[in-house]
Write a structure and sequence with these properties.
Elements lengths: L6 E4 L5 H12 L3 E6 L2 H11 L2 E4 L5 H14 L5 E4 L14 H29 L2 E6 L12 H21 L4 E8 L6 H4 L14 H13 L8 E4 L9
Parallel strand pairs: 1-2, 1-4, 2-3, 4-5, 5-6, 6-7
Helix pairs in contact: 1-7, 3-4, 4-5
Bound molecules: NADP nicotinamide-adenine-dinucleotide phosphate.
The site of NADP nicotinamide-adenine-dinucleotide phosphate has 32 residues, from helix 1, strand 2, helix 2, helix 4 and helix 6.
Length: 237
């Protein structure tokens, strides 16, 4: 897809990976729309990048439906949905808080499904579209403390495969991107504290590069799944 003048919608575009995808897409002449829950943070990013934003929570069905009504009256088409909004909740199995477990599923799984469902209606009607689900290497292999988060990202992989099977006949490309550790606010938001910058570890720009490259591939083909690791990460002593 040639990104110029295409309309792309990025959930959780106010920081980190989503913000970097938005910035790179804007450079390509794309009309970029970002979403997020924190209004102030969202508006600051939208202003900085010179793009449009909508403030809502992807895990709330009424808010998602209201957003799509507004979006459809503001835009004639949608060319790509980047299902990026998400966060981590990490604990040992014996300590898992039921509400936190369900909440992280509400955003990372239910929210992603709601956004894809409403986008798919547009894509089927126009017989074209792209969905990129931002999963994680946590969606490929489980690990200690990972029960809740890995479960959401394994679910995203399962949904990706179902949507690929359902939507290819409408020329819709559904792709999964699995970043390994990326230096964003993710760690702090997951309660793991601030980490010192490490130049050998991934940046959100690296994931944005992978996402834009996958979108830019000729429409006759698509990359089903793409995993990004740091080449030679070194732990600081
Ligand atoms: N950083 C990593 O190491 C890493 C590795 C693999 C995968 N990922 C995945 O990459 C994605 C982006 O994470 P990031 O690292 O860029 O973290 P981030 O900087 O914390 O960004 C997360 C974004 O998602 C939004 N968001 C979270 N819950 C939402 C909800 N319910 N409704 C709407 N927006 C919501 C946040 O906005 P608000 O603040 O307004 O809620 C923010 O814009 C996530 O899906 C994450 O699981 C991250």
């Amino acid at each position: 897809m040639n990104m110029n003048k295409k309309v792309i919608l990025i959930t959780g575009g106010s920081s980190g990976i989503g913000k970097s995808i938005a910035a790179k897409a804007k450079e390509k002449g794309t009309e970029v729309i970002i979403t997020g829950r924190n209004k102030e943070k969202l508006e600051k990013t939208a202003e900085e990048l010179g793009i449009k934003s909508y403030n809502f929570d992807v895990s709330k069905e009424d808010e998602v439906l209201k957003f799509f009504e507004e979006f459809k009256s503001d835009y004639k088409t949608l060319d790509a949905l980047i299902n990026n909004a998400g966060y981590g909740y990490f604990d040992l199995l014996e300590n898992i808080d039921s509400n936190k477990f369900l909440d992280v599923h509400s955003t990372n799984v239910f929210g992603a499904m709601l956004m894809a469902r409403e986008s798919a209606k547009i894509f089927i009607n126009q017989m074209s579209g792209n969905i990129i689900n931002i999963s994680s290497t946590a969606g490929k292999k489980g690990f200690a403390y990972g029960t809740a988060y890995a479960a959401t990202k394994f679910a995203l992989k399962g949904m990706t495969e179902c949507w690929q099977a359902e939507l290819r006949k409408y020329n819709v490309r559904v792709m999964l991107v699995n970043p390994s550790e990326v230096q964003t606010e993710f760690s702090v938001n997951a309660g793991n504290g601030e980490r010192e910058f490490n130049p050998t570890k991934l940046l959100s720009e690296d994931i944005a590069h992978a996402v834009i490259s996958a979108l830019e591939m000729e429409d006759r083909g698509f990359i089903t799944e793409l995993t990004v690791f740091a080449t030679n990460p070194k732990e600081k002593k």
